[in-house]
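S.,

Sequence below, as promised.
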Amino acid sequence: MLMQKNQAFEHAEMTNETIYAGRSLSALFLASAMEPISVGRAICWEGDEAKHLFQVVEGVVRLYRIVGEGRRVITAFCFAGDLIGASLQRDFLFTAEAVTECRIRRISRKSFYDEVARSDALHTAYISLLCQETAAAQEQMVLLSKKNAEERLCSFIAKLASRRNPQARQSLLRVPMNRQDIADHLGLTIETVSRTLTKLASRNVVAPEGRHDLRIVNLAVLTQLSGDADDFFEKSCHRVSLH
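The prediction came back faster than expected:
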């Protein structure tokens, strides 16, 4: 009985430590003032010195780079709880811009690294975050290099649905970004995004409702068309929530 109690205590202790590790990075930002960011306003600019890290508290942020003759490539979208700039060493490799009305917190890079260096739990959470950012980057590379337009768009919708509302992925989905944002993220033209959405709607897979709402009619078919059927029925580890 005593052994069972000790095992139960150790399990509870490990569980609490895991929960703390997942939330501890967020705690570093709590002493910082909340900053409102209006739609279209930049939080940081590509090429600027990365003096701060940012946490998205509310809203959606796009990370993008300008390549070639002024073409925009959106590398990622950040949602509430996400951290911006964790993997950077010196300069920002992207511009972070508000897609919707946002609220953020910031912390100096030095303070962040000092706190991480002092705590095993913070260090573990930070390493986990870096690993999952790497996994997300690899996933995006596969999407852009190997998937066709339909697979890319279906992957995007399915992942957004899972992230925005994991418990109810077959209902009305709010899509905060516009079609040009989606096109620049998926390496497509806005015309291709529109044509593919129309095609999916005609097959009763999704049904657009207004400019920023999308009803998922058949999640199973959407997942199959994404080319990642197995991935969406398992726990996703492409991000760390900092709530």
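Residues 1-22, 232-243 have pLDDT under 50 and may be disordered.

Coffee later?
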